Amino acid sequence: MGLPVLVTNWSGPTEYMTEENSFPIPIEGLVPASDAWFRNQLCELTHSFTLLLSFSQCGNSNTLELGAQPSQHELQKLMRWVVNNPKRAKKKGLQARRDMIAKWHPDKITDMIFERLMAIDAIIQTRNITRCPPLAQASPSPSSSADGSKT
Question: How many structural domains is the chain composed of?
């Protein structure tokens, strides 16, 4: 789409965002993810461009889930800049699209997964760990009869 993206400079989005392809929003700190700021402000913050806020979730009910609280002041400055500089903002959005295609295209992801699996396989081989045979080479298990004996 090539739209400018304002994104919290925290957690997962830092993997793909740069100063050249997005508008990172500095954080003021971490707050409980259920904080009222997150609930009450999201609707007011979105306008005619994409706004992403990232949350770091622990996934464990015994731990406190924290989210990054973006700087509201910096967010307002960035939003004003995007509105006042639509051509330059669009240029960043187009760069984001090019970067996403170059680094995160499904073919690239497939290559990354394959490389990681090969690295894991190399570790298994160097540690002399017994591996399960591939499914195509696995011998069928004997069937059991009703009395529990093998047939």
Answer: 1
Judge whether 51 and 6 are in contact, CB under 8 Å: yes
Quote the CA–CA distance of 104 and 111 in Å, as a whole number: 10
Asked if residue 108 belongs to a domain, the reply is: no
Q: Where are the beta strands (DSSP E) in the chain?
A: 5-8, 23-25, 27-32, 50-52, 55-56, 66-70
Domain that holds residue 33: 5-101
CB contact at 8 A, 69 and 30:
yes
Whether residue 90 lies inside any domain: the answer is yes
Is residue 131 assigned to a domain? Answer: no
What are the pLDDT digits (tens) for 92-148?
999 999 999 999 999 999 999 999 999 998 888 888 766 666 666 545 555 545 555
